[in-house]
Structures are given as structure tokens and as C-alpha cells.
Amino acid sequence: MEIYSLYSRLKQDSFSLFYMGEFDDDLTEVLMRIQETSSDEGKSIKKRVSYLIAECFQNIIRHSDEEQEVDLGGTAKFFMMRQLDGTHYLATANPVEEENKETLIESLDSLQNLSQAELKEIYLNSLGNNALNAKGGGGLGLIEMARKTKNPPAYSFIDINDQYSNFFMQLKMKKEDSSDGIKIEDTISMYDELLENKIVLLRKGDFSQESILPLFKLFESNLQLKNEDLVFKKKSLYILIELLQNMNRHAVPFDGSQEGLFLVALDKGVYTMKTGNFIKKDAAVKLKGHLDSLVGLDNIQLSKRYKEQLMSNTISEDQGAGIGVIEMFRQSDGEIHYSFEDVNENLSFYSFSATL
Fold first, then answer.
1. Is the pLDDT score of 246 beyond 70?
2. Taking the alpha carbons of 9, 11, 13, 17 in that order, is the dihedral positive or negative?
């Protein structure tokens, strides 16, 4: 997938995060931290969004049926949060057994077209008699989602096989004057595209120092990475740090935001990390020359260039090159790819990809 086309698809989002793969309770706090550092809204809004993140994430953990050894058609559990025109969208996907599907639909449909007062009444009644079955996807959590967002959850089911369906749920916490925005069909389309391209983590937004730190934890907490050996973990985290720091230091503002896009793809044990950000054209020419000079060098030659760079520092960090790029070439076990796409007369979109 071309990272610039993916960026263009999410261009209007002030912030996006997509995560696919393994889920556990430890990731909830990490996701809250990512949201908090990616938004400049007030504490009240952040608190509501953090609550919704926790409920959405726990919905995946608690309400996913215990999949036995059955073919789930290559599906993956999924979490999304996006911010567009001041409106927050959160979505989840997880498999549910067909026998629980109708109960889940009834629970969700019971929340449609209710006033805040009616939702509060249902909530209080459920506290007393647990009228909505939690395993079926109802319960207090769903009622509170509807109350916090002032909108009922949107949902959809996609058949996986005779036993399971993929259950998509989306929340929308909107401004009073917001447009229709992101529909659940758009989210399902994005899910399919990420799944097809084996993308397990994607973030689009501002890559300030504070906002990138939680991404290290999210990447490290991926249960698939936990199973890798220590040497591989160190190499992957080093490349991750260099890629994110590169954007933090060298991305130039575009449309009022110093933003970029970062993703991790995982295919048969091979990790590919990609970044994309805007860079001034004169800096792009110098950076491309530096990158071109590293292509085809073996580790001995790269080590020599690394030492020479340390000694001379002829290419400054401000120009987007430096020893970090050389070290990424040394640490990557696979291919390095990069490209520069003209955006306007002053800016290029710089894409970088490292495989290990």
C-alpha cells in the first residue's frame, strides 16, 4: 500500500489510530494516553472519550466469544479512534457466535431513538435487575456509551462462517453542528483494507515528542511481539524510535499541523514499519542523495559510513539525514524503500519503509 494514498484517505482527520491483533487489559491505559496527548480539548471532553475508549476496549475483551479451533476467515480483532471536525469516532470489531447474535441485536436496538431521560431510566433499572445480558453485548456498558455520546451505537454484522459473525460497533460523540461524518460502512471498508495489507497498527496525526511516546508502549505490548526473542525486540524498537524521532524532528507544518502517518504491518513473522511526512523540497533533494548513497552497502560498509558520519557530521540532523538513517539501514534485516512525492512548489511527501 502506498503510504501517501493512505494519508490522503485520512487527510481530513486531525487524529486517527487503528489497531488490529491481540488485546489485553494492559493496552487500555496506553490507548487513553495516546488520545489524551493527541487532543487539545478540555478535560471534560478528554474524560468522556477516555471512558468510551475503556468501554470499547473492554467490549472486545469481555464480549468476544471464546473462539474454539475454527476457521475465522482471516479476521482480526479491531479498535479504531478518529477525530474529524471536532467529532470523535470509536469503533471495534470482534467475532461473536451466531447463537448470541440475536440477543446482541435486541440489546442494541433497544437503545435506538431514546431520550437521555429514558436512557437514564433504563440504566437505573438495569442496575437493579440486570435486564440486559452483558454477554449478549448489552448491559450497563452499552447504555452508558449511548448516554455519554448522546447517540446510540451503530452496528453491523458480517458473516464469517456458519458459526461466527464479525460484529462491528461504532460510537459517535459529535458537535451540535457536525455533519454526517464517518459512517460505519466507511469503517468496515477501512478495516478490510488494513486486513488485506496486514497492517496491525496505524496512527495519523501530530508527531510531537509527547504524542509519540505512548506508541512505543503500544507497539511493545503487541502480544505477537512479546513472543519474539530479545535481539529482535531491540532491533525493532530501535527502528521504531528512529522512524518516529525522524518525523518529530524533520516534518514541516502542512495545513497548520506538523503531522504525519506511521504504520506497522505484520505478515508471516515479517515486520514492516512505514512513515510518511511533509518535507521541504530543498531538504528532500539532499536527503534523497544521502539515502541513495546508502543503497546496496553491506553492514561493514554501513559501519564505516556510520563512523565517518560521527566524525564529520557533514549532513546535519536538520536536513533530515544523519547517523540515525545509516543505523536504520544497518538494523533492518530486509529491504529499505523510500520515495518523495511532490505536493506543491515548496513541499514533498517523504515516505520511508524498513523491514525486519
1. yes
2. positive
HSE at residue 162, side-chain half, CA atoms within 13 A, is 0
Please tell me the distance from the alpha carbon of residue 136 to that of residue 63, in angstroms, as a whole number: 7
Residue 204 host element (H or E): strand 199-206
C-alpha–C-alpha distance, residues 171 and 153, integer Å: 5
Q: Is 137 left (phi over 0), alpha (psi -120 to 50) or beta?
A: left
Give the neighbor-by-neighbor strand order of the sheet with 199-206: 154-159, 164-173, 87-97, 78-84, 15-20, 199-206, 259-267, 270-280, 347-355, 336-342
3-class DSSP string for 263-301: EEEEECCEEEEEEEEEEEHHHHHHHHHHHHHHCCCCHHH
Task: Give the three cell numbers for residue 254.
Answer: 502542512
Cα atoms found within 13 Å of the Cα of residue 317, Cβ hemisphere only: 9
Which contacts of 138-145 are long-range, i.e. CB under 8 A and separated by 24 or more positions?
Answer: 138/103, 138/104, 138/106, 138/107, 138/108, 138/110, 139/107, 141/55, 141/58, 141/59, 142/107, 142/108, 142/111, 143/111, 143/119, 144/51, 144/55, 145/52, 145/55, 145/56, 145/171
Instruction: Decide which of 255 and 69 is more confident.
Output: 255
Question: How far apart are the C-alpha atoms of 138 and 20, rounded to whole Å?
Answer: 23
**Model pTM greater than 0.85?**
yes
Q: Looking only at Cα atoms, what is the longest distance across the chain? A: 73
Higher pLDDT, 157 or 131: 157
User: How far is 244 from 24, CA to CA, in rounded Å?
Assistant: 25
Per-residue pLDDT of 158-186, as tens digits, reads: 998 888 899 999 999 876 555 578 999 99
d(CA 176, CA 180): 11
pLDDT in the model for residue 182: 92
pLDDT per residue as tens digits for the range 309-318: 777 755 455 4
Phi, psi of 134 (to 5 degrees): -65, -40
Q: Residue 73's pLDDT band (boundaries 50, 70, 90)?
A: low
Q: Report residue 12: phi and psi, to 5°.
A: -75, -15
